[in-house]
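Example record

One chain of 63 residues, shown exactly as stored in the release files.
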Amino acid sequence: MKKQEEITYETAWNELQQIVAELQAESVSVDQLTEKVERAAALVAFCRTRLRQTEEKLDQLTG
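Predicted structure tokens for this chain:
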């Protein structure tokens, strides 16, 4: 995955949605399946981290 500074939450979320759609449509070959699942896991981790960071910042601001 790109460095976290180079990717936005929206970009990661959109890519994750695309991967899910491909998996649901069964348009991913067996050879690509592991790669797609690993990428999806990395994107989920990134999104969770970004959401946690945002929540912490909001908590600080609203103290």
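Notes: The chain is about 80% helix and 0% strand.
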